[in-house]
Amino acid sequence: MHLTRKTSIFVACAAMVVFAVPAFAQAPAIDYVGYSWETGGFPPSVAGDELVCLGVTSNLDPIFGVDLGVDELTFHLYGLISTGEVPLGGGMVMVTYTGGMMDVWRDGAQNADWGLNPPNPTAPASFVDGTLFFRGAFNDFTVFMLGDGSGSFEGTLNGLGGEVLGDLCTDCAYTWGGTYTQLSAQVPDGYDMQMDGELLIEGSVAEDVQTWSGVKALFR
Amino acid sequence: MRKRTLTMLILAAVVAFAIPATAQQFFDFNGQTVVPTMVGGALSMNAVIFDAPPATTPIVLDFANFEYTLVISGLTLDVDGTTQNYSGGMIALYEDAATAADFANGATFVDGAALLSGVVTDLSRTMFTPTIGTVLGHVDWTGGTRLSDIAPEDQGGWPLVSGVNASMFQVEPGYDEKWDGKVEPEEPIVGNEYFGFGELKTNFR
Q1: What mean pLDDT is predicted for residues B83-90?
Q2: Which residue in the set A56, A112, A177 is minimally distant from B165, CB to CB?
Q3: Cβ-Cβ contacts under 8 Å, A202 against chain B
Q4: Minimum Cα–Cα distance from B184: chain A residue
Q5: Best mutation site among A88, A145, A150, A193 for testing chain B: the one with the most B CBs within 10 Å?
Q6: ipTM of model
């Protein structure tokens, strides 16, 4: 088959769009633990309450390029506004939140300290120092709770900024989720809940530029 | 009581019962789980334990030189449903520097020294959506080379809490769910704990 130069360029560009290759075979994850509080306390979650969470990273995919022996990665969730509890039956309740931001900070100070009765001199201050690694705005955020004080949460984000966005991928889908528990957990005084979960990059399929030879090789 | 003796007792009490002002202690794990499809089947989990400063582990672990794995086996499904109830499982925490944990090879999780071993006395698993759930159980530590690091009165009833993620993006081949959670004592395990002398005396009244 012979293609004109113009046609070749067009086909190559189309191939870049159509055959965008997922950057990751499995979703890269940042594993964290943290504690949260809600204005007015939790549970129950009352409409209008703000949820705040402070967390530290315990493990992350090597693709992020962070050595936790050198830098700490800390999380700060804020501005999540409760719409109130909705009973689901069987003792389950669901709480959806509107708004909300998540900042992830990288710093070598290794100084994260939840302290007691937040906000306090170290929280959130020791979780928001260093270099902004990631900033995202929540599209949605939902908490599920059982009557025994255990539960889960999940939310999705749009990435807005931070050093990881330029390095890792653009137009990615970020998911924030994990376990949310009060019962028998070592929750510091003044915090309401313990969070343990992951920030995931799912569906990171924005673009992977291939040469024309590379595209052709896919069909051989 | 002579003043000198009293001073010695106070100092001894301060040394013997020192406790950090704030300290979160837990074994933070991230693992893959096989979930049974019917009552009577067994649940199992292979997990890696991670360091999560400023929180610490309930017993001192050397993350710089060893890998730590947590394994649950033989946890029997008693009641099925949105909330499942389990009992009768075994749990062990291994220390190993020879082979890296590989979810494709379960043997890499149970090699090395069993620092702690015990039983999962009860566990419930509730799914809120097809992919999101929560787990709450309890662990009694009964054996292992480091069991004596934990006072006998602190060895039982440790909560096991975990999130459940059944997303296809997160489950390794051969497993059903990813579990991300922790096993923790009801309150921090301490070698020392501070008491005022007056408070100390009340313990002997």
Answers
A1: 96
A2: A177
A3: 167, 169
A4: A185
A5: A150
A6: 0.78
Task: Name B110's Cβ contacts closer than 8 Å, sequence gap at least 6.
Answer: B69, B71, B92, B94
pLDDT digit string, tens, across residues B139-190:
999 999 999 999 999 999 999 999 999 988 889 999 999 999 999 998 888 7
Judge: B180–A198 Cβ closer than 8 Å, yes or no.
yes
Q: How far apart are CA A108 and CA A129, in angstroms?
A: 10
Per-residue DSSP letters for A11-60? HHHHHHHHTPPPS-SS--EEEEEEEEEETT-SSSPPTTPEEEEEEEEEEE
| pLDDT higher than threshold 50 for residue A133 | yes
Distances (CA, A) of A8 to A5, A11, A111, A177, A207: 5, 5, 55, 45, 20
Structure confidence by residue, pLDDT tens digits, A94-107: 999 999 999 999 99
Domain ranges of chain B: 1-19+190-205, 24-189
Contact B55 A33 (CB under 8 A): yes
Q: How far apart are CA B30 and CA A152, in angstroms?
A: 16
What does pLDDT average to over chain A?
A: 82
Instruction: Check CB contact under 8 Å for A146 and B162.
Output: no
**Both structure tokens of A75:** 């999380």
Lookup: tokens for B96 = 């190993």
- Residue B75's closest CA among B130, B35, B20? B35
Determine, for residues A186 and B165 on separate chains, whether the beta-carbon distance falls below 8 Å.
Answer: no
- Judged by CB atoms closer than 8 Å, whether chains meet at A152 and B30 is answered as no
| Residues of chain B neighbouring A177 (CB-CB closer than 8 A) | 132, 163, 165
